[in-house]
Each structure stands twice: as C-alpha cells, then as structure tokens.
Amino acid sequence: MRRISDRNGEANGMEPVIKVVGTGPGDSRYITPLALEAIGEAQVLIGGRSQLQSLASPDQQQFVIGNNLARVVEFIKAQGGKKIVVLASGDSGLYSIGHYLARQLGDERLEFIPGISSVQLMFARLKKPWQDARILSLHGRSIDSLDQVLAGPGVVAVLTGGENTPQRLAARLLEQGAGNRLVALGQNLSYPDELLVITELAALFNDPRDYSNSVMVIFDEA
C-alpha cells in the first residue's frame, strides 16, 4: 500500500507536501476556513496576481502564475523544505494548475484543499442539481471539444474564455443542429457586478453584449 501523505505535511515521510488550495469563485467569503488556515501558514504563496494581492501577507514569499507553468515548477523545486501553497481559482481539482503539478512533481507531493468552483456556484444560482452535468473548459482550448461533449444527453456547463465567447458557442451549436436550446450565463459570479442571464441559443447568437469569461449552462432541451 502506498502512503500518499499525512497531515503533518510529509509526503512519503520525506518531502514537504505542496498544498494546492482552491480559493473559490472570487468573493473572499467563499474561501473555506481550512483554505485560509493553509494560506496563513504558508511561507511561500504561488498564485495569480490578484489572488496574491488579496491573500498574501508581507512576510510571505510570492511567485506570480502567468503563462509560465514550467517556471512555476522550477521555482517550487528550488524552495527546499519551505511550506508552499499554490492558489487555484475555484476548486483545486477542476481545470486547475493542480493537474499540471501532479504530472510534473508527482501527486504524492501534493495535498488538494477543495474550494467552491464557479460551476458549483452557477448551479446554486440556478437552483438546479449538477451531479449529472458534464463540464468543459474552453479557456485556450479548441471549440471542437464542444461537439464531443454535446454528443450525449444531459446538461453541459462550459467555462468560456478568450475567443470562445458564449455567442461563438451559440453559433457553433446552431450550426450543428442542436436546436434552439435554453441556456444560462453567469458572469462575474460572486462579485458585486454579477450577471445572470437565461436565454435561448438564437437570441444569444444575436446578442451584442460582452459575456466574456462566463459560465455557460446548456440545457438538453429547447
């Protein structure tokens, strides 16, 4: 039997565990107490610029995540026995940096502390169950992935981003004969300017407003 880690921060009895901490959808009130405890105990914090600005203390060493994942791994390897926390937006296991770190460093060195994802919050806003939903991120990914996910029945939640705007997704779905399905958009979830829109694919396709970086829920019927 392989011992993955213990609660004292030792991986396989040797190296300190690197904690990948989900920081929730944005509003600090959605960060769990356990996540805040781990962040407070860290000597080194790694995360997005805005995350570090809101969560890091002056005595913590900081490293900003951008388009530099290989450098993040190099930086972690150079920290020796320091207590390291990597901040992941939303949940640590849903399209987060944790998956990349597990491949590069080995999952036995990691502890995941989950958070509330934007998908989870979106379904809470809709007051709908999500245990059967299929989830897809189109941040930096080909829109072709959408066709495969929609091939089966059920509700689909898509993390939109970049050129893959909700309007572009609506156009693709209409071209593929998905029908004028009901869709919901959640933008800036948990923030004061949060926006929730429920519409249909055809109306969304013709909507000129900016819905960038929204969670898009595609229902399986018109």
Write up this protein.
It is a single chain. This protein is α/β, with parallel strands linked by helices. Helix content is 29%, strand content 23%. It contains eight helices and twelve strands. The protein has helices spanning 33-41, 49-55, 69-77, 97-105, 118-126, 144-149, 166-175, 201-205; strands at 10-11, 15-16, 18-22, 44-47, 61-64, 84-88, 110-113, 134-137, 156-159, 182-187, 195-200, 214-218. The model has no long low-confidence stretch (mean pLDDT 91).
Give the structure's gist in a few sentences.
The protein is an alpha/beta fold and 222 residues long.
Helix content: 25-40%
Number of strands: 12
Tell me, briefly, the overall form: elongated
Note the run of SSEs as H and E: EEEHEHEHEHEHEHEHEEHE
The averaged pLDDT comes out at 91
Q: Any key phrases for this structure?
A:
alpha/beta, five-stranded mixed sheet
Itemize the secondary structure elements and their pairings.
Elements: E1 10-11, E2 15-16, E3 18-22, H1 33-41, E4 44-47, H2 49-55, E5 61-64, H3 69-77, E6 84-88, H4 97-105, E7 110-113, H5 118-126, E8 134-137, H6 144-149, E9 156-159, H7 166-175, E10 182-187, E11 195-200, H8 201-205, E12 214-218
Parallel strand pairs: 3-6, 3-7, 4-5, 4-6, 8-9
Antiparallel strand pairs: 1-2, 9-12, 10-11, 10-12
